[in-house]
């Protein structure tokens, strides 16, 4: 559980390459607690600007933390 929280701070916290709002980081940290207590299996948060955060329980009792960023360019003439 602590590894997942450390990973959240690494990927999304103040020291991340592109940090996100601390309120969102707090929600993700509380999600880890809820997953550990078996109240939920996971969450996906759309942070905006093409950034999505995912925290989910995996099959072997581990918790996966994922940051995905999409870049989309559209040209219309």
Short synopsis of the structure:
This protein has 77 residues and is of the alpha+beta class.
Biggest pleated sheet: 3 strands, antiparallel
Low-pLDDT residue spans:
none
Shape: globular
Order of helices and strands: HHEEE
Our count of helices gives 2
Using only C-alpha atoms, the radius of gyration works out to: 14 Å
Number of extended strands:
3
Spatial strand sequence of the major β-sheet: 1-2-3
Q: Give the percentage of residues in beta strands.
A: 25-35%
Q: Distance between termini? A: 50 Å
Helical coverage, percent range:
25-40%
Provide the residue-averaged pLDDT: 93
Structural class by helix and strand composition: alpha+beta
- Total domains, how many? 1
Structure, described:
- By secondary structure, the protein is of the alpha+beta class.
- The protein has one domain.
- The chain is 34% helix and 27% strand.
- It has helices at 2-12, 22-36; strands at 42-48, 51-57, 63-69.
- A three-stranded antiparallel beta sheet has the order 1-2-3, covered by helices on one side.
- Strand 2 (51-57) and strand 3 form a beta hairpin.
- Helix 1 packs antiparallel against helix 2.
- It is globular and about 55 Å long.
- It starts with a helix and ends in an 8-residue tail after the last strand.
- The mean pLDDT is 93.
Topology:
Elements: H1 2-12, H2 22-36, E1 42-48, E2 51-57, E3 63-69
Antiparallel strand pairs: 1-2, 2-3
Helix pairs in contact: 1-2
Any descriptors?
2 helices; about 80 residues
């Amino acid at each position: 559980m602590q590894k997942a929280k450390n990973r959240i701070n690494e990927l999304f916290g103040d020291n991340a390459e592109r940090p996100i709002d601390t309120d969102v980081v707090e929600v993700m940290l509380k999600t880890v607690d809820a997953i550990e207590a078996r109240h939920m299996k996971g969450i996906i948060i759309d942070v905006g600007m093409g950034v999505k955060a995912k925290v989910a329980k995996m099959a072997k009792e581990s918790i996966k933390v994922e940051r995905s960023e999409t870049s989309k360019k559209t040209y219309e003439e």
